[in-house]
């Protein structure tokens, strides 16, 4: 079949705990004068004070795909709502999906990759996590979802910064960085982030992803930074089978880790089978992966991204004159064997 | 040669049906267009999501974004049958004795002809609805199977289990089989007498259109480059039998099917807007409409077996006359 639909509607996913500021941000998206019309899919009408025919209430419905893969989940309700909305595409320019406080962002994101109908008409733009600066430490203690939401985000809005001291704020931000070194973080009060920082980000657009993203470039350095401070991690993972040197076990209640890899030019004959094997075997443990790969003998940058076992890659643009042909790859997940990832990644480098 | 009377509308057509032998075209914006001595339009739901053709009462049931359920009859008659608040009506169906069913979120409702309504709450979303042709019984497609309710009587529903998300549902015309469409590219079936499972797989795409042939001997389906037609004349349905593949094309997918009212012939609509008629016995094809602007979404034969109304996702609808 030829893919005639070239205009895919961008979809922004808003995650965050109750009280983190999602509704405030949604109200701003719906009321501010930005010249765009948004259809908003919410789990409950309740709090949004704006009357808008394009606010759709939808019961979160997670469907496991019947293919034997436990991480292959989609949001069944979104498939239906998006299908309904897209029958009248002239009404809006973009879609925002608000998830419940406890929602796992993965099925939402996977819906936009795994369902052919949804995928043909829409594209995931970015996952935005709202975080309450004051209550995050508590949330991380009592739930895994809070951590997943941060780990999975492209943009983290660190909200209610006026309710904490500068020291507390620095600590919360370091925690977020530890969970997700690749996300952009914005400190705000009353969800006062510029809407251009949360909407139309193209975070899943391979042609735009990672382009000039300073945080991504810094990711490696962050890890070093953490490493320097972190030599007493044995009480956390001393009994694990794998010893993970790199990551932020100095921060309590964090089970997500990131593994940042950096190397030279890769041998495509080694790299592609490797990344395929890693995502097949470690898929359930990988929340997100992002990378820019320099392939030997290729004058274009190759970018890849993944969610669990779903992985996408494409050429992005030509390497610029004088730009270092370097490969960078970040895995965010749980129980990742950093040593083994690093060794096997290094082994993919071109001779 | 078949002739096509086109009706170019602006918007996604959900249903093209004959009501009192007049072709009606229902769009996603809730407008109901008809070719009744000229082009006429009336408004049903404010945003229309689901339709069901109630053949016995010669009407179309519609559900919409406005949380309302309407009955559309020939001549521009529209009646509101139910209202369920602000939530979308995602599925509607009609049954015996003037009863209808509609769903919103996790709740299915049955409204009897006298206006009484009964509510059926489910633990998961109600995805699809269908009445059994016999008795007051209706089925709900849901996650991990289907549920059969007996709305006129008290008592527990019958649960039919099969892993996966079931999105649509239909009973065979004799009431012996229950078939669901699934989120994955497959149909599932149960023989109701003994609960035996039927797996109908191998589709490259999701199945969105089903049509029973005369007396329910065959079930035609979309979701492949051909109409996939399963044999249901044996007592165990299609188990152990291969389906017919009719109207196969190399470069297009079937998006809508409608079996002929009295012969073993199916009208097949494709994603490029083409429509063909294909005979089961020898797979002979007749081109009825050349490709158009959008995928065919709906097809229906008239009672005289002379005309076919068709609707498309791009709004280029029309009526095919095969007698000319």
What's this, in brief?
The complex is a heterodimer of chains A (about 350) and B (about 325). Chain A is of the alpha/beta class. In chain A, about 30% of the residues lie in helices and about 25% in strands.
Which descriptors would you attach to this protein?
heterodimer; A: 351 residues; alpha/beta; Rossmann fold; Hypothetical Protein Yjia, Chain: A,domain 2; 2 domains; 7-stranded parallel sheet; 5-stranded antiparallel sheet; 11 helices; 31% helix; 25% strand; globular; disordered N terminus; B: 324 residues; mainly beta; 6-stranded antiparallel sheet; 4-stranded antiparallel sheet
Oligomer: heterodimer
Instruction: Tell me the CATH topology of the largest domain in chain A.
Output: Rossmann fold
Integer average pLDDT of chain B: 96
Distance between the termini of chain A: 41 Å
Strand portion of chain B, in percent?
Answer: over 45%
Question: What's the number of extended β-strand segments of chain B?
Answer: 30
Distance between the termini of chain B: 6 Å
**Strand order in space, largest sheet of chain A:** 3-2-6-1-7-8-9
Strand content of chain A: 15-25%
